[in-house]
């Protein structure tokens, strides 16, 4: 029986004329694997054997092995349409551009997803920690409310006035020891204006401390007392529930922005000739400031530039007493650091406000945002002090790593 009738290919499979048009037999079911039947047959006028075909012609019979551009090029050649033939150089450039765009999109998308996942993880852990510790603080707060029942105003004065005041004097007391004695000596290495206040003038210091005490307890204290009824009417500062972690952060951000705006414009107004000589000149008696003179000012300046920028935020937000206590304490500590005269490691840089005391007409704000917008820090940005206006993360003083030029030292 011939091989073809048994359903398997005959040795003619290797015959060069095997692919010529002929009557194909009906396939017979068999378990033997057969080669696939060609989907099209060459025309009768193009009967060439495999031996006479060029390698390129042989590749044309296997279009599945060509790239997409090669298939387009072959189709255009077969059709004879020269206008549709693609330029290989242009195609390679377009492929490279699209490949780069896909890689960029993949990298950016992956980075965005990782950032979102990291941020969600961090906030989840912070919220979990806050929630766990929040039960403890909530219990302590309710215990205080029970002790000061129907006398919440006393609790408000303790939290809004006495606690921030004690922290102010505890921090500045340590700085005064260094200013008066020059010890420990390693702290003196971080002095910003070298050769100034070594040691500090004791007569001038006593006079300044009296003014600071007057401003604190004859102006700030009454203002805090009168602040309570307004907060009580707007939103009870001694309400039973403590603020959530996210709301507390939002309040601090709003307090900071309000203080920046009010302090910048009131401070700059006080530098007008009409107000400077009568009011603000008192504060600028210290061209090389120390921490305690942060509240050394004329009473009008103390109300306009020190108290109002700090109290408007809590009043607008109807803040809880816990937020007010933290905010007032932070405000006093930060303004003390800005005036301390030392660029200490791991603390905010005081170079910005120290330069204001040195030159008077630069750096009016707290954060420096409005100074940048109004150009009132342009001279400061050209100095070595601006280069040193960074968070010191080591123990080498910036006055040594970024020293002033010899001309300025003279």
Automatic annotation (TrEMBL):
<feature type="transmembrane region" description="Helical">
    <location>
        <begin position="245"/>
        <end position="265"/>
    </location>
</feature>
<dbReference type="GO" id="GO:0016126">
    <property type="term" value="P:sterol biosynthetic process"/>
</dbReference>
<keyword id="KW-0443">Lipid metabolism</keyword>
<dbReference type="InterPro" id="IPR050307">
    <property type="entry name" value="Sterol_Desaturase_Related"/>
</dbReference>
<dbReference type="Pfam" id="PF04116">
    <property type="entry name" value="FA_hydroxylase"/>
</dbReference>
<protein>
    <submittedName>
        <fullName>Fatty acid hydroxylase domain-containing protein 2</fullName>
    </submittedName>
</protein>
<keyword id="KW-1133">Transmembrane helix</keyword>
<feature type="transmembrane region" description="Helical">
    <location>
        <begin position="153"/>
        <end position="178"/>
    </location>
</feature>
<dbReference type="InterPro" id="IPR006694">
    <property type="entry name" value="Fatty_acid_hydroxylase"/>
</dbReference>
<feature type="compositionally biased region" description="Basic and acidic residues">
    <location>
        <begin position="64"/>
        <end position="76"/>
    </location>
</feature>
<keyword id="KW-0756">Sterol biosynthesis</keyword>
<keyword id="KW-0472">Membrane</keyword>
<feature type="transmembrane region" description="Helical">
    <location>
        <begin position="212"/>
        <end position="233"/>
    </location>
</feature>
<dbReference type="GO" id="GO:0016020">
    <property type="term" value="C:membrane"/>
</dbReference>
<feature type="domain" description="Fatty acid hydroxylase">
    <location>
        <begin position="253"/>
        <end position="376"/>
    </location>
</feature>
<keyword id="KW-1207">Sterol metabolism</keyword>
<feature type="transmembrane region" description="Helical">
    <location>
        <begin position="105"/>
        <end position="126"/>
    </location>
</feature>
<keyword id="KW-0753">Steroid metabolism</keyword>
<feature type="compositionally biased region" description="Basic residues">
    <location>
        <begin position="49"/>
        <end position="63"/>
    </location>
</feature>
<keyword id="KW-0752">Steroid biosynthesis</keyword>
<dbReference type="GO" id="GO:0005506">
    <property type="term" value="F:iron ion binding"/>
</dbReference>
<keyword id="KW-0444">Lipid biosynthesis</keyword>
<dbReference type="GO" id="GO:0016491">
    <property type="term" value="F:oxidoreductase activity"/>
</dbReference>
<keyword id="KW-0812">Transmembrane</keyword>
<feature type="compositionally biased region" description="Low complexity">
    <location>
        <begin position="27"/>
        <end position="38"/>
    </location>
</feature>
<feature type="region of interest" description="Disordered">
    <location>
        <begin position="26"/>
        <end position="76"/>
    </location>
</feature>
